[in-house]
Specification:
The protein is globular, with a radius of gyration of 32 Å. It is mostly helical. The chain has four domains: about 210 residues, no CATH class; about 130 residues, no CATH class; about 140 residues, no CATH class; about 110 residues, SH3 type barrels (Roll). About 60% of the residues lie in helices and about 5% in strands.
């Protein structure tokens, strides 16, 4: 993005916030008028009274709403900004499948109200928002229209308004009436803002981006090629099992919590458990299964052959939905576990020629044949088939590979233990009274390499204590600190040459012994020794009766703290045992335009800035165990899965589809992502994402259904 486009983009966002200060009070006035009009036309006294309460509450909250919304909008826009030149800003989520089961009825209704407001507003601003998005896409450096280039989308503004209103001490019913009465005028205000901002960008010489040529919606995979909120509403729910039933969020919520009764019956529902009861439950459960499988069929991360095989499971799953309507929500149900197991393993393969795909596909076909036989015992059959599938996957891993993986985990655990202990040792060293006056080269050495030496010695002694106190390496490595710190200070060491001559040999000998114990690189060892001996030589040649003024060679101002390396130190032996990725690859320069790297059509990771922020805040927990990634290595993208992460998120172990292991430090992981050599393929289960899309479709259906 060039400077002119960047300036135009920033100017547009600043003007949007300035416009908000003007239109927000105006919208609140329109809302008051709309409430008053509804109050006058209300035919029922109860509804009239509720509208009066809503209008009076608005009068008392106007200032808080205006102030809070401006802050919420600024925050939402900031979160939605594309980062690092990519167009993968955070998207407002409707509701996830797992969240829905935990929600109360009031929360579900509030979520539905949000969907309805978003729909009304979106219908008012469609053309104007698209025009603004085209201009902002160009300003962001895109040649084609990219929805995420526009952080001022209506969905983001409405979500910010909802968050503001939820922060007020008002009843949900009051908020609902505000939103119902103000949705249309909110859309009108946003439409005017979009027109104004588009004119501003046009005056600054920004040309609109063009349209992208994309595949048909039914062949796209949403997380990678076509985000869910860019597909036509209802695309996921075009096929239903019963034309009289539309899956709404309330229906789905009631199905999940087991609170749907048969229409027209006073008897409590058995949720279809008997196989002869609730027709509504069975119909909705079948609809969820159909939508879930349709979503999986469109997931291009799975090979086409795998998707076809999963679709062949539909008759069995529909039959199961009639007897166990909630099987898809129960992670322990054999059918749900089978779907998770098949889709999880499928992500390991990028072509049907990959090693291990043939036996896996044969076993899936065997499972299909077993479940297609009629009978009420599908769950029991799936339980046995799942055990057989898991057993075969374990047997497919060669004993040598399993042993190597175990050794890698054991080694990485040890590495992190030493790293955490070294951090505490470094803190102890910094707390010494003589630490601050030492030269910077010595301070850096002590809080990095030498703290690792002491930590390693303490760990070894914890496993096997020395026979005598004097034989403790950890004690000897700590005992040299006074002499090392003193001898490196020209101002002090030059005053006592006899002591200097006496301590130097033992200090150097102990330093070399300790560095050898952690296999510290010889070149770095010699470089430090040269610097240290330079300090000793300067002190020896200086004969003074008073401390000299000025700094010794290699000295740093006491106030300057050495930069701490937060990456674990891994000796060569441990690097081999843990299958550590070579530093030469991790530290190589970013891919140039002539290298293939990852194309826009390949699986797209979450925004790097978001991931890095989470990793900083959660110590690497952003990429969880189970995440599938592609790593560009040796001229090709290789599929790996994170199968282990250290407790503090500093180390990760990856496993390939061929059973090989690869470990990486947190910093190495960050470098690969920054260099576009690592892309996240899936950080959630395929079935989880499919069910989330079902919940989203129910959310959209609710917005189109009259209350």
């Amino acid at each position: 993005m060039d400077d002119r486009n960047s300036q135009a983009y920033d100017a547009c966002l600043k003007e949007a916030l300035a416009q908000t200060r003007e239109w927000m009070p105006r919208w609140l006035s329109h809302l008051q008028s709309a409430l008053r009009d509804r109050e006058s036309s209300a035919s029922q006294m109860h509804e009239k009274q509720l509208l009066i309460e809503a209008r009076r509450a608005l009068e008392g909250q106007r200032e808080r709403i205006a102030t809070g919304f401006l802050a919420a909008m600024a925050e939402s826009v900031e979160r939605s900004l594309p980062r690092g030149g990519s167009a993968t800003g955070r998207r407002p989520q409707s509701v996830s499948f797992d969240e829905l089961e935990l929600m109360g009825d009031d929360q579900v209704q509030e979520t539905v109200e949000l969907a309805r407001v978003q729909q009304v507003v979106q219908m008012s601003v469609d053309e104007e928002q698209l025009a603004l998005t085209a201009l902002l896409s160009t300003a962001r450096g895109f040649e084609v229209i990219n929805q995420d280039a526009n952080p001022l989308r209506a969905e983001i503004i409405v979500a910010a308004l909802m968050n503001t209103l939820k922060g007020l001490k008002v009843e949900p019913a009051v908020r609902a009436r505000w939103l119902q009465a103000g949705a249309l005028s909110l859309g009108n205000e946003l439409r005017d803002v979009y027109v104004h901002l588009s004119l501003l960008l046009d005056q600054m010489g920004i040309e609109p981006a063009g349209y992208a040529v994309i595949q048909a919606p039914e062949s796209r995979q949403a997380p990678m090629a076509a985000p869910a909120n860019e597909r036509p509403a209802g695309a996921a729910g075009e096929e239903t099992n019963d034309g009289d039933v539309v899956l709404t969020l309330d229906h789905l919520h009631q199905l999940l919590v087991g609170n749907l009764d048969q229409a027209g019956s006073d008897a409590p529902s058995d949720q279809g458990a008997s196989g002869s009861g609730n027709a509504m439950v069975r119909t909705l459960a079948s609809e969820v299964v159909s939508l879930m499988l349709k979503r999986i069929a469109a997931d291009e991360r799975l090979l086409p052959a795998v998707r076809d095989m999963l679709q062949d499971m539909k008759p069995a799953l529909l039959q199961l939905a009639r007897s166990e309507p909630r099987f898809f929500a129960d992670r322990q149900n054999p059918a749900r576990r089978m779907l998770d197991a098949i889709t999880e393993r499928s992500l390991a393969f990028t072509t049907e020629q990959d090693r291990g795909y043939g036996p896996f596909a044969a076993q899936v076909r065997k499972i299909l044949q077993a479940v297609q036989k009629p009978g009420p015992d599908i769950s029991d059959r799936l339980e046995g088939l799942l055990a057989e599938l898991n057993r075969s996957q374990e047997e497919a891993v060669a004993p040598a590979q399993a042993q190597a993986r175990g050794l890698a985990v054991q080694t990485l655990v040890r590495v992190e233990q030493r790293h955490l202990l070294a951090e505490r040792v470094a803190g102890e060293i910094r707390g010494r009274n003589d630490y601050e006056k030492a030269p910077g080269v010595v301070r850096r050495f002590l809080t990095s390499a030498w703290s690792q030496v002491i930590a390693q010695a303490r760990l070894e002694e914890a496993d096997k204590p020395p026979l005598k106190p004097g034989e403790s390496p950890a004690s000897r490595y700590g005992d040299i600190l006074p002499d090392l710190l003193w001898s490196s200070q020209l101002a002090l060491a030059s005053l006592n040459r006899p002591r200097l001559v006496k301590v130097i040999p033992s200090v150097l000998r102990t330093l070399r012994e300790g560095l050898d114990s952690i296999e510290y690189p010889r070149e770095q060892t010699e470089a430090f020794f040269q610097a240290l001996m330079g300090l000793h030589e300067a002190a020896y040649k200086t004969q003074r009766s008073e401390p000299p003024r000025g700094s010794a060679p290699g000295d740093d101002p006491p106030s300057v703290q050495p930069e701490q390396d937060d990456d674990p130190w891994i000796p060569r032996t441990e690097a081999r045992d843990s299958c550590l990725m070579e530093d030469a690859f991790v530290d190589s320069p970013p891919l140039t335009s002539t290298q293939p790297a990852f194309q826009e059509t390949m699986p797209m990771q979450r925004d790097w800035a978001d991931l890095k922020a989470e990793m900083a805040g959660q110590r690497g927990a952003a990429l969880a165990v189970g995440t599938w990634v592609d790593i560009y290595q040796d001229g090709q993208a290789i599929r790996w899965q994170i199968t282990w992460a250290s407790p503090h998120g500093t180390l990760f172990l990856f496993t390939g589809d061929d059973g090989r292991s690869l470990s990486m430090t947190k910093r190495g992981l960050e470098r690969l992502m920054e260099q576009n050599r690592l892309r996240v393929v899936a950080d959630h289960g395929v079935v989880d994402e499919a069910l989330d899309e079902v919940a989203r479709q129910a959310w959209l259906n609710s917005a189109k259904t009259k209350s």
